[in-house]
Amino acid sequence: MLYGKEHVQKYQETDGVEGHEWNNTTTLLLTTKGRKSGKSYTTPLIYQRFGDAYLVVASKGGDADHPEWYKNLVTNPDVEVQVKGDRFKARARTAGEAEKPEMWRVMTATWPAYDEYQQKTQRPIPVVVLERAE
């Protein structure tokens, strides 16, 4: 399965029956509002539960720059999330220094390549916490 527009489309059409499980891990769909365009952008991302929240990593494969979806949620932290058939509004925030190490371990347990990505770049790769909006 492709990890991009086709992934998003199949995930949405099947409530995650196709697309939730990917390469021995799990993905959710994150929809952000473009910081310049105001358009909605949906991105499939590896995630893990962390208490009542969901964690995703803004790795961009270890690129020197943050992914666009991360830049968008920094500007507008009100996002939409889909986990399987569960669609909900959420508030996104970057994990703080005190909480990030534990969250990073949770994420590297499901996708060990995050450690490699961090070694490839000078920027600290953010862990993003998605908390369901009331």
TrEMBL record:
<protein>
    <submittedName>
        <fullName>Nitroreductase family deazaflavin-dependent oxidoreductase</fullName>
    </submittedName>
</protein>
<dbReference type="Pfam" id="PF04075">
    <property type="entry name" value="F420H2_quin_red"/>
</dbReference>
<dbReference type="InterPro" id="IPR004378">
    <property type="entry name" value="F420H2_quin_Rdtase"/>
</dbReference>
<comment type="similarity">
    <text>Belongs to the F420H(2)-dependent quinone reductase family.</text>
</comment>
<dbReference type="GO" id="GO:0070967">
    <property type="term" value="F:coenzyme F420 binding"/>
</dbReference>
<dbReference type="GO" id="GO:0016491">
    <property type="term" value="F:oxidoreductase activity"/>
</dbReference>
<dbReference type="GO" id="GO:0005886">
    <property type="term" value="C:plasma membrane"/>
</dbReference>
<dbReference type="InterPro" id="IPR012349">
    <property type="entry name" value="Split_barrel_FMN-bd"/>
</dbReference>
